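Hey, resending since the last one bounced:
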Amino acid sequence: MVIVAVGANTKLLLRMGLLKKAPQVMLCSRAYFEGMTDMPDAAQCRFDGVPLPGYGWVFPVSNSSANVGVGFLRAGLTARWMPKNARTIFDSFIQIPPLQSILAGAQRVGPIKGYPLRIDFARSPTYTERVLLVGEAAGLVNPVTGEGIDYALESGKMAAEHLIRMFAANDLSIKHLAEYDKLLRERYQRLFVLCDRLRFLYLNPLVLNRVVRSVAQQNELMEVFMNIVIENQNAYEGISARTISKVVFGKT
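The structure tokens again:
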């Protein structure tokens, strides 16, 4: 038995025949900056200066340093004109006026690093004969936020526990392996389908502006969306008719 945890590197999966073609990925680039004097007092997610669907971020790591980066998906009607690497977008993102203000006097520490993120769990295979896939190898990266460390840890634990059950039952059949996929789908499928839909909603700047404005003005709505993204709340319970009404019409 083999547990495959190769991240976004799909060469092995393509050679094994698990993937028929390279999956669509989110492109990301980030760097660390120190010596910032105008440090935000909270993490920032920004949609200005970044292609949609995508966002830029400023994540403070101390009183004077931060992780700054961008992530986007080459999708939608304008995909063919988007850059094919995230470094170009990163360079333009840190030049927008709000970032220039935040980074005034700061120095970059270390290189600018770029990387792809697999976000295709909703359509990705998770097993084959005597093989289980975990984490990003199974496409387990949140399609909205690009976060995947917790999914990697959780799916790794689920795979290990499933293997223990298989060995205890002396049953390594493909049918028993398929039960691992069922466990993953029960845990993550609805969230990933919803996140896919939310991501493509904000391809439309008018929709995005409306959602961001409503969330920014209503603390309760902001809490709902953040809890859904970090999985503290069931997505289908959180996105209720009342929540949609708050986004569309404001406070109700």
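The chain has three domains: 2-23+120-199, 25-118, 204-249.

Sorry for the duplicate.
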